[in-house]
Structure formats: C-alpha cells, structure tokens
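Propose amino acids for all 528 sites.
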C-alpha cells in the first residue's frame, strides 16, 4: 500500500491563504452596489440581479462566467469606486433541463450603466451561446451608457449590437426589460426575437421626457412615453407583458418550451396530450354562421390546438392579426390568423409587420406555419397609404414567399383580393391549402364586384334593388365560394370544418421532412 504523502505545514498554510484569498475575492465581486441601493431596488418591487437568475433558471444550475472582471477605466473618480462584477452577472445554466446563456444587469452598481468591461462580459456570453448553440436571455436593468467611460461605452454597445445580428436566426434571443432601458441600450432588445416588459416597472425610450420637453415642447411621463402598455399596444416593441418579475420569468420558461435550441435543431416534441383525430362541433357552428357575423379567431385556434392551449405573441398589438404557438400532435406549430372581430380581419401596416416578423422567426428556427385565413383585403385610407402600406404591407408577402418550412393554410371564410395571395396561398408556395365550404375566395366581395361589373344593367333594370340582389346571389354562387379555386387546384381540398384538426395534423406529419433548395444568392432585399 502506497504511503500517503502529506504536504509540508508551510505549504498547507500557503494553500489555505490562497483559498481564503479566492473566497474573499468572490464575496467582494458578488456584493451589490451598496445596502442602501439594494433597499431602494427592493422598495421599487424589483429583484436583485442574482435573485433574478436564481428565479429564472433551474435550481442549482447556474455557472457564472467572468465573476472577477473589473472596470477598465480609472477616469472621473472611477478608480475610487468599487463596482462588483462591473454591474452585470453573466453565465450559463438550464431552463427545464435545457442549456441557456444569461446575463443580468445590476442596477445597484452605478445604475447598471454599461462600461467597456460590462459590455465585454455580455459579448463573451453571447459568443458562447452562438458557439454552443443555445438561447441567450438578457435581463436588462440599466440607466444606459457609463458617461465616465465615454466612447469606450459606446463601442461596447456596438459590440453587443453586432453580436445580436450575428446571433439572429442562429439561436433564440430573449430580452426582459426589468427597469429602465434608455438611449443606445434599447437597440439590443430591439434586435432580439422577443421582448418582455413589466407593468409599471419597465421603461424603454430613445430620449427621456425631459429631453423631449426641451427639444419639442411635448409633455409626457415615463409610463406614457415608454411603459409596458405603450410598447405592447402602440409601438409593438414589446411582445409580452407581465404583472411581476415572477410572472415574466414564468412566461419566458413557457416560451422556451416551444422553441428549438438553435437553427440546426427542431423544437422538442411533447407527449401528445390530445386525440389527433378529435373533431369539433364548435368549428362546424362557426362555419354555419352568417358571413357578416364576426367571431373570435382565438376560438378556432383553441379548438385546433392540443389541449386547447395557445401561447399568443404580441397579444395587445395589431389585434386584427393573431400570431403565436400551439402544439399539434405534440409538435410545435406557429399560427398566423386574421381576426375578423377587429377591423374585419383586414391587413394594415401594423398587422403586416407583426405577421412578417413572426413568419420569419418561425422559418429561421424550423417551426412549421399554420395560416388561418379570413381576410377581406388591405385596410383602406389616406393614413395607411401615406404611412407606406404598399411597402410595409409587402413585408408579409415577402416573408411568406421566402419561408421554406412546412406551410399549411386553411381558408376559414373570406379571402379577397391581394390579401388572398399574401396569406400563404398556393401561388406563393403554401404546401397544402384547405378551405371550409363557407369560404369565399374572390377578387372582392360579391356586392362590390356586382356594382362594378353590372353597373349599367342594374341602372337600366325596372327594379334595380331586386336586380342587384339577384346578381349578387348569382355571383356568390359562381365565384364567392371555394369551388372555383378547388377546380383550378389552388385549394387542395374543401373540408368539413369539424375535420380541420385531424386534417392539418396529418398534413404537417407528411411535410415534416420537407426540403427546399432556393436560388443561390447572398440574400434578398426585403422591403424594410
């Protein structure tokens, strides 16, 4: 038996000192800015940076990176300041057993301001996320650039922006705005895939209320200028709102369940929680409703989804189009659907951009797309034309044409004009296109078409009202139905509404190994 070798007492003492030195350095780096700032953070209902990571990630899964990084600048009194971890905690861990990278800005350390070392920590964890092929989550709580570091701070932001673009379409990027996010700091979240905000706590803006007041004379406060409600309902910057940080992290964990780790993988399958052959009497009832009676498209989506579960994205923005994730037979599917209860489901500028961004995300991450169509056309008006509906509305068309993932389309009711083409029609390479018997596929509604085509006949008739009604009925029977489109192969099958769920599950199952080889080029030029 080998003799146990004990290190000399002097060496043991030396090792003990080294271990204690490491422990003290770690403890110092893990401090907050100060007890007073910690109390102020808590008083606002905000968690500390490390508490947020602990709450977001699986228990005991966080591995910190760059704990001992220190500030680089010594100007303007920074040499006398202790900035633990330079105001940001970075590392990797797990969510529901899956690896993720995360950074959490610490507002108690100089207001979470971004200096060069702070930025380089974020850049390193983003680089690791891209190389490892895992999602990256940013917990943002920062007053903006660290003025004392000047152009180095601005350079740090630009380094982050560059990596946001490199990561785009490679790994999912999620931003949670948990406090202020001002100036250049807003561009990184804007470049990520999904933005979360907290009601009453989160604020995003390029310039604050005081600067706006001095520059333009406009009066506003933080909430109306850049609060969660403003950005979720008006600007569309925010995809999800939460009532608390706990609720925000719960939603992030739920969102990740629908997403793959990276662009080379498909979303993980779940054990099917619902009968794939389930039919729906409710869908038949909707199909039998009068054509001018509105309904909620959400009711259709819930009926189709496994377990009636729908994870909606951008819920409060551009409500005339609905987007989000469901499972069909246990597989993740992205849904894009017109909502006839808002603006009759017509496409306007905001709806087009909302739909386009979602379609592009799904295509980047191999998520099949289900399109539910009930669209009377593009929303008319001077404001829409001056706002660029031609250019901006074309974004949705471009996104669908570019998407190569499996695409299944169901025409629920109206599909008129150019909007019929745009909503994943067969002509722009929808893979399998279905229609309910009540579907109306035409250039325009029967009333408008008759008024144009038969204007002279109606005027010359003995009873113009009766004549117009007869012509509308005849036009509806001939053209405002799915059968002319089916005769030309533009609709693959006219299906009973109740059978929609089993039909689309089988369609997506058939298309699961779809491969498309596009035209070789650097990239297209989307009408931005």
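Proposal:
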């Amino acid at each position: 038996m080998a003799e146990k070798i004990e290190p000399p007492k002097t060496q043991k003492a030396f090792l003990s000192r080294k271990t204690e030195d490491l422990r003290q350095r770690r403890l110092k780096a893990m401090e907050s800015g100060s007890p007073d700032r910690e109390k102020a953070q808590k008083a606002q209902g905000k968690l500390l940076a490390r508490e947020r990571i602990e709450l977001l990630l699986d228990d005991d899964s966080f591995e910190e990176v760059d704990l001992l990084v220190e500030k680089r600048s010594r100007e303007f009194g920074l040499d006398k300041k202790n900035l633990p971890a330079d105001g940001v905690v970075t590392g990797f861990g797990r969510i529901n057993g899956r690896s993720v990278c995360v950074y959490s800005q610490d507002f108690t350390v100089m207001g979470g301001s971004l200096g060069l070392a702070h930025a380089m920590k974020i850049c390193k964890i983003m680089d690791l996320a891209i190389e490892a092929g895992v999602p990256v989550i940013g917990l943002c709580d920062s007053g903006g650039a660290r003025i004392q570091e000047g152009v180095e701070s601005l350079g740090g932001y630009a380094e982050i922006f560059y990596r946001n673009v490199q990561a785009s379409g490679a790994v999912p990027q999620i931003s949670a705005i948990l406090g202020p996010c001002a100036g250049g700091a807003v561009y990184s979240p804007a470049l990520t895939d999904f933005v979360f905000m907290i009601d009453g706590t989160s604020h995003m803006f390029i310039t604050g209320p005081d600067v706006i007041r001095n520059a333009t004379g406009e009066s506003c406060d933080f909430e109306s200028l850049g609060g969660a409600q403003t950005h979720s309902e008006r600007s569309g910057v925010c995809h999800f709102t939460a009532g608390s940080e706990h609720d925000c992290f719960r939603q992030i964990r739920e969102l990740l369940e629908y997403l793959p780790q990276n662009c080379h993988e498909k979303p993980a399958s779940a054990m099917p929680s619902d009968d794939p052959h389930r039919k729906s009497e409710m869908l038949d009832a909707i199909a039998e409703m009068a054509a001018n009676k509105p309904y909620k498209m959400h009711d259709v989506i819930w009926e189709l989804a496994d377990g009636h579960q729908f994870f909606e994205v951008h819920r409060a923005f551009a409500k005339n189009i609905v987007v989000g994730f469901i499972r069909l037979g246990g597989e993740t599917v992205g849904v894009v659907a017109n909502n006839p209860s808002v603006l009759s489901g017509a496409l306007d500028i905001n709806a087009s951009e909302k739909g386009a961004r979602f379609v592009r995300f799904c295509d980047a991450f191999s998520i099949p797309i289900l399109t539910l169509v009930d669209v009377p056309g593009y929303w008319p008006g001077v404001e829409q034309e001056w706002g660029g509906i031609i250019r901006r509305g074309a974004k949705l068309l471009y996104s669908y044409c570019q998407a190569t993932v499996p695409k299944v389309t169901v025409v629920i009711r109206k599909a008129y004009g150019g909007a019929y083409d745009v909503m994943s029609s067969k002509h722009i390479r929808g893979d399998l296109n279905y229609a309910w018997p009540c579907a109306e596929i035409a250039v325009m509604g029967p009333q408008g078409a008759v008024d144009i085509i038969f204007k002279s006949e109606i005027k010359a008739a003995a009873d113009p009202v009766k004549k117009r009604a007869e012509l509308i009925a005849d036009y509806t029977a001939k053209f405002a139905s799915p059968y002319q489109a089916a005769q030309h192969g533009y609709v693959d099958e006219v299906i009973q509404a109740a059978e929609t769920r089993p039909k689309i599950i089988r369609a997506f199952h058939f298309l699961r190994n779809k491969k498309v080889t596009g035209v070789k080029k650097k990239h297209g030029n989307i009408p931005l």
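Residues 116 and 151 are 9 Å apart (CA to CA). The first helix runs from residue 9 to 29.
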